[in-house]
Amino acid sequence: MALSFYTAFEDRYRGSTAMLQERLAIYEPFARCVGGPVLDLGCGRGEWLGLLSTWQIPARGVDLEPAMVTICQQQGHNVSCTDAISALRDCKDASQSLVSALHLVEHLPFGGLEALVRESLRVLRPGGILLLETPNAENLLVGAHDFYTDPTHQRPIPANLLRFLAVHYGFERVEVLRLHELMDKKERLDAGLLGAIAGVSMDYALVAVAGQAPETWAVLDPLIGNLQGVSLQDACAGFDQLRYEQLNAICKRLDTHEEQLQKVSALAHEYTERVFAMQRSVSWRITAPLRFVSRKVRGMARLVVRRDAQGRIRLAFRCKRKLHKAIRNDGLADLVTRDAHDLWEVIESSQRKR
User: Fold this and answer.
1) How far apart are CA 252 and CA 246, in angstroms?
2) Which residues are CB-contacts of 182 (< 8 A; sequence separation ≥ 6)?
3) What is the pLDDT of residues 44-93, one digit of tens each?
4) Is the dihedral angle over the CA atoms 39, 45, 51, 57 positive or is it negative?
5) Co-location of 152 and 76 in the same domain
6) Where in the sequence is the domain holding 62, given as residue range(s)?
7) Number of folded domains in the chain?
8) Per the confidence metrics, is the pTM higher than 0.85?
9) CA-CA distance, 97 to 175, in Å (whole number)?
10) Distance (Å, rounded) from C-alpha 128 to C-alpha 35?
């Protein structure tokens, strides 16, 4: 791979210097806790070295990329072009207060990672800190996709593996800090399933202290308590809670609809009873002939009932002339008119009595 390619790649995907230094500023209390000297492995463009210089903590860096080394040297940093393991092996025992490797370990084969952890313990003073930051494979989008954007990455390193490695090679106590979330809690919940997939912390840092060093941990414990980030379990629990609340809201709406349906059913039953009562009434039986005739006439023509100027009921048929003539000839119109008038009288008489 051409060196110029990876330099351009870092500029495109690593992020701006200002953004990276804003993220790295969370490590200031750790660096101030132990002071210098600091050895930064894989220093890249020197963002971390720049912060250490601002805090007046002596530090030097190493990187295999000549272009990166040149950039750091132009900024006035003490940087050499060599690999991380060689740089550690050149250090004397208990000569460093802090060994940092920020987004380096995922580039190393496992044998190189073992050597880095083992040599770091040797070169650290009692109470010194090993600080490793790497992409968090617990974030499903990072672990399954974004991690492989960098062609020099070997494979994601689960936090449990890195923690075990540090403990196995002699670090007394190791903590894992989840860092750099793209969403806050509300945004994760609003995003639904995407919040569970991409809402987990994008990176994590391993903080290991050489020796017992209770005084160091007394300073670090409050800091670590505030940097727990978001685990996959947290994100999934939030998604499950959101789904539960949504389903609960749906169930409440269904209960409301069921109550409304029960009211409608009761009204329908009441109106059905009224219809049955009407059909059993005297007036319904009296008007049965009229309804029979009306059904017969309706099949032939449209029957229109109206009052005349004197208030008498009159029937009119809207039909073809031939059909109208046949009705007039057989007297059916007179029969229907008479029955309708009698029915109207019965209804009005009943209303007057009420």
Assistant:
1) 10
2) 198, 199, 202
3) 889 999 999 999 999 999 999 888 899 999 999 999 999 999 999 999 99
4) positive
5) yes
6) 3-230
7) 3
8) no
9) 18
10) 9
